[in-house]
Amino acid sequence: MVNKTLNSRDMDFLLYEFLNTELLLNRLHYAGHSKELFDAALNSTRELADKYLANHYRKSDTYEPVFDGKHIRHVRETKEAWDAITELGIIRAEQGFDEGGMQLPASICMAAKFYLSAANIATSSYPLLTESAANLIDRFGSEEQKALFLPSLLNGRFSGTVALAEVGRWAEPDDIKLSATIQNDGSYRIKGPQTLVINGDHCLTDNIVHMVLASVEGAPEGIDGISLFIVPKVRVNEDGSLGELNEVVLESLLPKVGCRNSASTELSFGIKEGAEAYLVGKPYRGFHYISQIMSDTCIRVSVGAAALACQGYLYSLRYVPECSQRQLSIKNMPLSQSGRMYESADVRRMLLTQKSYSEGALALCLYASSLKEDEKTADTECERQRAAVLLDLLAPVVQSWPSKYGCITNDLAMKILSEVGCFHDYPVEQLYRDQRINPMHEGAEALYALDLLIKKIPLQNQYGFDIFKQEVRMTLQRVNSTALLKELFAPVNEALECLNVVTSTLLHDIEKDPSLGLDTANLYLDMFGRVTMAWIWLRQALAACRSLGDDKQVLTQSEQDFYEEKLQAARFYIEGDLPQVIRQADLLIDKNQLSFGM
Questions:
Q1: How far apart are CA 390 and CA 371, in angstroms?
Q2: Computed over its alpha carbons, how large is the radius of gyration of the chain?
Q3: pTM score, two decimals?
Q4: Contact between residue 214 and residue 270 where contact means Cβ atoms under 8 Å apart
Q5: I want to staple 399 with a disulfide (CB 3.0 to 4.6 A). Which of 149, 298, 455, 528 is the partner?
């Protein structure tokens, strides 16, 4: 059986010691809130996840959704989970009081979504995509569109999707073949080929609202000609009641390796007259609108990757003391007399790697959420602007690192269990399959890499990169004055300087030969991610040191162990993993362009 959710002690550390989320209560936006309210929201979500999502994690993988010729049907528990999630108000938790929401901070909401993903990553995708659709309408839709769709999306009567790619293609805007034709009454009709839509059909809600990118007739080619539309499965009357079925046809259900309860579908739009659609915002601004909310969506996806990684690590940790490694060991490998698995240095290495990757990924995602919060509610315009710029720079790292290293974490969980890790009796193989999908969202890691190196780094004369370096150096100053952490100053400082030199060199060379960006972007993203993760672990280590060095606080032995384990994970990552950036820097500066040799 899979662990239900992350230990609440870890989440408390990240929210209140690493991020100091409680300080948000000093802001006017949260004047009516309290830490007790934050904790109550998280505890309620955790209990819901344990009761309504974890209970069908294995079942929904074994008995995956089926297409009966008309609709896609899920195991019964999926509907029960949806009803519980919407009743608790999770989809609208971040919305303001005036919109019927709870006005909770982004970091608290993201922590709540972590619990849902940890319990059942596939089922948790339904509220995630619904929230994304609601955010698009809320930010860019007309008042009439908001009145017609938002209340039902936020209360769970409707669900939502974001349809970006045609079947068999990456999510490339230039490849979108859906066309929209304006009618005499100002409405639109959409027609086009089969489109891949995650959660595109089910029987969980009365209606499904698809956010669709399409090209209006006569529009410019490429990104500049793409518009965003609302295409409901069932037409909605002006009074909010449901009308006739729209021309949204379910063609097939696509079986996949993981996240099986999240149905991947092929939909066709407008097989006769065209599917009725509502233009969102201005024509030709569709890709811009999608880009504005995709960073939020991708952070949620990355939180899901962190959740799967944490689950794999926690199961490994629980399995190891129960198992003797004697039968797993290589012949003549030195073993203790007892042969207990946890006394193996290799197993300890794998566990520490899992801990540093999984807990680091979660910390990174929550930090990104805190930047989103600062962008919205920080006291001064300068603080809000600084947070926005830093979040924009770090977005490609946040979007890619948890998924990439989450796969490694879940792979290590299978290795620790050895042969039995491949058996359905143990959850680690399902965790790995579910995780393996995450690095493929939006096409490939290369898209994030190019976004970072070609777009984000040079922006505003490297203003975002300068802010990042300032933040890391401020952390390093505190580390250098902390006795327990002084030895970590030099490796992180050296890695930061390497990154600085590599960045300057690459930008100079790419200006002369743009093809270098295509060849070096992935490695650069990984290098940038390693430095970022070292910084995140330094900040966690500083938080742990504050508690260990607090004379006013009497720590129990378990608390002492908890903080010392954080320090050990930080040391393990910085001294064992981070040095790889030195070799990466050499490769990037050499510019071998080996990829072009084929």
A1: 8
A2: 24
A3: 0.93
A4: no
A5: 298
Q: pLDDT for 62-74, tens place per residue?
A: 999 999 888 899 9
Q: Do residues 467 and 566 both lie within one domain?
A: yes
Give the tokens for residue 392.
Answer: 């924009």
| pLDDT classification of 493: cutoffs 50, 70, 90 | very high
Q: CB-side exposure of 353: number of CA atoms within 13 Å?
A: 19
Sequence-separated (6 or more) residues with CB below 8 Å from residue 52: 77, 80, 81, 84, 85
- Note the pLDDT tens digit of each residue in 114-149: 999 999 999 999 999 999 999 999 999 999 999 999
Report yes or no on 116 lying in a domain: yes
How many structural domains does the chain have?
3
Query: By three-state DSSP, how is residue 462 classified?
Result: helix
In DSSP terms, 210 is beta-bridged to 161, 231
Q: Dump the DSSP string for 92-115.
A: TTTS-GGGTS----HHHHHHHHHH
* Strands 158-163 and 207-216, sheet pairing: parallel
Of the candidates 110, 113, 195, 112, the residue with the CA atom closest to the CA atom of residue 161:
195
Q: Is 80 exceeded by the pLDDT of residue 103? A: yes
| Domain CATH code at residue 47 | 1.10.540.10
| CB neighbourhood size of 253 (10 A) | 18
**Helices H, strands E: what count in the chain?**
17, 13
* Cα 48 to the center of its chain, rounded Å: 21
